[in-house]
Amino acid sequence: MLVGAGVASPEDRAVHEVTAGRPPPADLPRIADDAAMHAPGDEGLARELLAAAMPDLAKALPTEMGGRGALVKGDNPVRRVVGAIARALGMPEPQLYLARAEPGIVAPVAAEAPGVLVGAEVPKRWSLRQQRFLHARALAHIRRGTHAVAGFPAPRLATLVAELVRLVAPPEADLSALAAPDLALAECLARDLGPDALARLSPLAARLAAEAPPDWDALALGIRESAERVALAVCGDPASAISIVCGETEAALHTPEVARLARFAVGDVYLALRAR
Fold this sequence. Notes:
alpha+beta; 13 helices
């Protein structure tokens, strides 16, 4: 973790290089979507509402592609890696898109058929273990149905949930504590949530409207961390995971995004997975 955060001593780096110099294991661990892999904060009524609405949200809030990526057909090394990770996570292999102008990106794609957007220079920019982390994180979001909101900051999550509640809650629900309206978002949701979705989501929305607002920062961080826990378990290297998270967040070991993943990396659940 010290190596990943860029604060390791020469002695620490020497110890880590012994392991890092070896090729990663060919066999990936089987990672279940169970409570042990769910981060604190990735829970509660707002999270339940998002989960129940995810099939509809992927249609209402599709990833803006607009020529951003081309569908990859046929066999190639990246597809083989993504396929192996999908099998380890017990999920169907998603579609693969080659990013046109984002050479280092690996991101989930929200669409009717979910996918992963991968930059052409990913194999050059990232080590094999880092590639496993990036691909596994994207697939973990797809498996849990959070790919449509992956990367949403807390205020955006609050607005999305507020518009969902306004759309599906029964007329008698008290909506006064919801975030400010977003008319454009409301129109998108109304277009793609049909009568069946409204009936399915209404009881959850009524319960959520009757409660105090959740901790949106905790929910946003929890959704991110749940995917990164899975990705860390797949790649098997805390240094790779921590280095990527530090780079993306411009954070250090004492910040929540990094510190919580670091604590997971020395916890019983992750250590048990490594021992398999």
